């Protein structure tokens, strides 16, 4: 007999089936034992009775430790009270490995304890739902770009220089010199766009910012499209379409996960393009109108982003930031050289920035000037300057932060639960 996963049981009603997984819970009611089997595809109740099983199996069902691995055989039956509509009437059970006493008991634990046991915490229903939601959001984003004809490329993790600023670099020994963990795949994405037209990079990025907020990780994943011959407004339109599709697919394909996470989906159901767009200067006026002290020319922090995003019930595009608070590669606004053609997308409900991007500087002379202004070493960037020497074109792109997007869609408080093994200032284990 071939074994099944829980999500396939409905196809075999009334038939003998075999399942393999772990005991997530158990309880007794008179002469009946109830085991909850978890296999990564779902959880199903398995009913053990004396008249259907041997005395050994019935005895085992009453004492088997949580998270022991088992093979369960039985009849698949309809059960309207079950969350998945089916249960298993057990005829046989084999314990593969008996678990030791499980450290994550059926009680509340502190975050520190759970993070120390992250490798086991992943087995809980909410963490399982978060990772499935993350997988679906990533799949949606990649499919979105694939269907538009974008080419997926890989950018190196080890780089010779900074792309976002030298104060947030992780330096590593690289044979006889220093290298740095990438802050973004963007610069290499630009090179690929000059060869392939429209591309996207999906990979990890690293920031050594000493931030201990609910929105910050030191290692996180991004999807970063770059488009040759595209300009500013086209890029905003693309980001808007991507977020619309992510929300649509999350509501359709991850509804069970959102239910487990107790997400109020009424907020998400309002998220349909078009999204509001305001300039940085308009955002500053909005903040001041709400009593927030803020100086024009400063960058928005988490508090300011929350106030702005809570002012709208849809994601908010903020455009045309002061050039001095943006990266060296941002193109200046031709109508106001104080400003960069930069855009951030702030998620509603106070979740803050999930997308950052804009138009890239395509002038060799201007880019050389920006590198000097930012105090960057020009030598490691010669290859990047070559992109302007040999057939420069208008081009643009953005980066979508996977973890922040999942945090918003899931409606949870802290970004640390949206990646399997989070890396924080004070967290490198497990």
From TrEMBL:
It is an enzyme of class 6 (ligase). The keyword Phosphoprotein does not apply. Homodimer. Its main location: cytoplasm. This is Asparagine--tRNA ligase. Residues 131-430 form the Aminoacyl-transfer RNA synthetases class-II family profile domain. It is found in: Cytoplasm. Belongs to the class-II aminoacyl-tRNA synthetase family. GO terms for cellular component: cytoplasm. Keywords: Aminoacyl-tRNA synthetase, ATP-binding, Cytoplasm, Ligase, Nucleotide-binding, Protein biosynthesis. It holds the Pfam family tRNA_anti-codon. It comes from Desulfomonile tiedjei (strain ATCC 49306 / DSM 6799 / DCB-1). Its EC number is 6.1.1.22. One of its GO terms (molecular function) is ATP binding. GO terms for biological process: asparaginyl-tRNA aminoacylation. The gene is asnS. CDD domains: Asp_Lys_Asn_RS_N (cd04100), AsxRS_core (cd00776). It catalyses: tRNA(Asn) + L-asparagine + ATP = L-asparaginyl-tRNA(Asn) + AMP + diphosphate + H(+).
């Amino acid at each position: 007999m071939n074994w099944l996963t829980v999500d396939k049981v409905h196809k075999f009603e009334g038939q003998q089936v075999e399942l393999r997984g772990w005991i997530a819970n158990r309880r007794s009611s008179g002469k009946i034992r109830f085991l909850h089997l978890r296999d990564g595809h779902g959880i199903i109740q398995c009913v053990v009775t004396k008249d259907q099983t041997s005395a050994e199996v019935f005895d085992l069902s009453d004492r088997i430790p949580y998270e022991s691995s088992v093979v369960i055989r039985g009849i698949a039956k309809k059960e309207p009270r079950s969350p998945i509509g089916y249960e298993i009437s057990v005829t046989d059970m084999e314990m593969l490995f008996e678990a030791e006493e499980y450290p994550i008991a059926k009680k509340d634990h502190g975050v520190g304890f759970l993070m120390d046991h992250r490798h086991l915490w992943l087995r809980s229903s909410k963490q399982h739902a978060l990772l499935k939601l993350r997988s679906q959001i990533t799949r949606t984003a990649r499919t979105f770009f694939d269907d538009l004809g974008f080419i997926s490329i890989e950018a190196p993790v080890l780089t010779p220089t900074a792309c976002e600023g030298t104060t947030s670099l992780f330096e590593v020994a690289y044979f006889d010199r220093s290298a740095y963990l990438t802050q973004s795949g963007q610069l290499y994405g630009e090179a690929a766009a000059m060869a392939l037209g429209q591309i996207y990079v999906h990979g990890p990025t690293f920031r050594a910012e000493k931030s201990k907020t609910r929105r910050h990780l030191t290692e996180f994943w991004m999807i970063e499209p770059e488009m040759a011959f595209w300009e500013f407004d086209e890029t905003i339109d693309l980001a808007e379409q991507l977020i619309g599709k992510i929300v649509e697919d999350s509501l359709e394909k991850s509804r069970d996960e959102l239910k487990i996470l107790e997400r109020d989906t009424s907020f998400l159901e309002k998220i349909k393009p078009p999204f509001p767009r305001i300039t940085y200067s308009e955002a500053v006026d909005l903040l001041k109108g709400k009593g927030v002290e803020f100086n024009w020319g400063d960058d928005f922090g988490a508090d300011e982003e929350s106030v702005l995003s809570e002012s709208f019930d849809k994601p908010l595009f903020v455009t045309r930031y002061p050039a001095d608070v943006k990266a060296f590669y941002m193109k200046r606004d031709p109508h106001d050289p104080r400003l960069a053609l930069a855009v951030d997308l702030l998620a509603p409900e106070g979740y803050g920035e999930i997308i950052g991007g804009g138009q890239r500087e395509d002038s060799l002379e201007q880019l050389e000037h920006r590198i000097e202004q930012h105090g960057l070493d020009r030598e490691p960037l010669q290859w990047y300057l070559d992109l302007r020497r040999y057939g420069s074109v208008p081009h643009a792109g953005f980066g979508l932060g996977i973890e922040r997007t999942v945090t918003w869609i899931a409606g949870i408080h802290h970004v640390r639960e949206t990646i399997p093994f989070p890396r924080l200032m004070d967290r490198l284990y497990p």
